[in-house]
Amino acid sequence: MLSNKSIQRITFLLALLAWLLLIAADLTGLFKAMRRSPSAIPQWLPQLLLAFFVLLQFIYFRSNIGKAESINFTDLLWRVFVTGLMATLGSLLLLGVGNAIEGYRIGKSILVQYLFYHINIALVLMFLTSTFVVWKRLILYQKTKSLLRFWKGFEYLLVGSLALWVFMPRVNTGFSIIMMLIFASLAYGLVLSVNLKWVAYLNFRQKWKSILLILLVLLYLSYFTRIMLSATQDWFEVLGGPKDGAWSFLNLRLNPVAVSLLGFTFIYALFSLLVILFNLPTSSVFEQKLEEVINFQRLSQAIQAGEKEEHVYNILLDSSISAVVADAAWLEINDQDGEGDLILQRSITDEELLRVKKSISKGIVQSVLERERSKSVTSHKLVATLKDPTFRSMSVYPLLVQNKQIGTLVLLKEVADGFNREMVDIINTFVNQASVSIENFRLLSEALENERYKEELKIAQRVQQALLPKKLASNGCFSIHAFSQAADEVGGDYYDTFQLSDNRYAVIIGDVSGKGTSAAFNMSQMKGVFHSLVEVAQDPKDFLVNANAALSRCLEKTSFITISYFIIDTSTKTVEFARAGHCPTLYFDGSTGKAEFFQNKGLGLGILRNSNFEKHVHVNTIEYKPNDVLLLYTDGITEANNADGEEFGYDRLKDLLEQFAQEPPEKMQTSLIESVYNFSGKRFLNDDYSMVIVKFNPN
């Protein structure tokens, strides 16, 4: 089978050949007409060459877009913009050259004008075809069987219109047939244009970028509409006009495919622009993310509420189906009590389930179904295409407890390539949280029978360590290092990072009220809220307000969480931050050698559970310089006591940072923690203590 690059090269060369042959055929006919002698070239041949040119361009651009699961919406719009820019500049260049040579003999040559018009035809059709392919990718995002069927009908109508137009002289049809084809195609396009699900997955910045790109695309379309309406008539009259029908196919106004493509691309661009504008104030993405947070919290709270394992399985199954709009699913749990495997099914019969299992070929997906999962398996490999009469794609997720597969979640769709990367990531989050909840449940049950308190602490410690990131996001502009130690083997300190873009990074540190298992559970909820909202929130204030709203629904009335949230932008060399009741951040100025505490204020999450919380959020921005240090910590460090009951305090921490600020973050952390140990006279403190150090590197 040919690769995409091979297909692109072949179709490009064939399209170029078809265009050159079209020019040669037309020139031959033109010379014959100028000499008033009959042409040996049949009238339908140039039309056939033009039709081949359009079809080859469609194949070229379709192979150039890539698979739907790798779609980046703004990149697709950028592709349309660049193609339109090239086509428009080419057309304007021809116009400028034509105006420049208009007074000369060559400028009045019908052959030169003829060549210019052919180039304009190629540019117009190239832009319309490439835009059509991109619109197809956007429309078929999260495709369904009915949508796929309707789109195929649209394509068949366009191909049929093209074929009928080629052989139009052979049948007794006229302008009415062309208008019927155009109206039918535009009606199809109008119905398809309401499929704009991709807009919901744009963040605020991407929406503004998309608005600009779509406006430019509409500008290009307006320009090409002018060419088709006015310039076409001018050149057409130069080539013979209505008096001679030999070149009537060159009149794009009579080409049903060209007019249909122009109308469809314009309608979809206009609809996209309006929907994005309406979605700017309130984005449906936040609603979806909020639903994911709630489902995440339901999985976290199921064990706390004293429910059985089967309740967690049902929540996992229903939440997963809802998140990816699966057509069917089942969850199979291994036999543990000698009562046989537990299988929970949704919209699938026993017969269909067995048939799907048999249709899976040997490979990674089957090994997961047979509970032989390798540790090297990654998420994107757990998606498969099925040769089943009902279901065409599936996604499989192993349910692991203590590194042992206890079950398998299988999601099915009736369309091929029905699962993209974002869907897989969402379900992985649900499965991982369900695994943690089930693991906690089972280990807690064992602890109650044997050594309840000791086992409970070990479980919570594993949960806490699993929730803390193994690697912190950064780039060459800054270095980052973190350290955390729980008191009595378990605590509620939390820190994390997230790369928002090439130059923007989110950093968070938090402290959950209380200790023990409940603090660890609340910590897991904080992690879920962070990862669900970090890409949606536009700034620290937006994040804190939405995080408070989400956590207020699940935290106990006596529980709260303090955090400090930062956005580091290495392109502007700024740090934007807000504080929700957490310890004041310590900042070292590399140019002065002095450290100061940030004085911004704020209430902890869950303390004020209404809209008044927003009034207590204050956002600050600073510009960092090389060798500046940002020190984030929890109160376990400043409240560490020595034998006399004296606290370590803020002043000592400030003096020590000034002393060790020239060291790398790892060594700086070691020196600071050793100083705390030396002060307290012991290596284990009474409270959880964590520290995150960010040092900004020289240019």
Structure characterization notes:
The chain has 699 residues and is of the alpha+beta class. It folds into 3 domains: 66-281; 286-450, Beta-Lactamase, CATH 3.30.450.40; 467-696, PPM-type phosphatase domain (Phosphatase 2c, domain 1), CATH 3.60.40. Helix content is 53%, strand content 14%. It has 19 helices and 15 strands. It has helices at residues 4-34, 44-65, 73-100, 110-139, 145-166, 175-192, 204-238, 256-279, 284-304, 309-324, 350-359, 364-369, 421-449, 452-467, 516-533, 540-552, 635-638, 649-660, 665-680, and strands at 328-333, 342-346, 383-385, 393-401, 404-413, 478-485, 493-499, 504-512, 561-569, 574-580, 586-589, 594-597, 619-623, 629-633, 689-696. A 5-stranded antiparallel beta sheet has the order 2-1-5-4-3. A 5-stranded antiparallel beta sheet has the order 6-15-14-11-12. Strands 7-8-9-10-13 form a 5-stranded antiparallel beta sheet, covered by helices on one side. α5 (145-166) runs antiparallel to α6 (175-192), α7 (204-238) runs antiparallel to α8 and α15 (516-533) crosses α16 (540-552). The longest helix is centred in the N-terminal third of the chain and has 35 residues, at 204-238. The radius of gyration is 33 Å and the shape is elongated. It starts with a helix and ends with a strand. The relative contact order is 0.06.
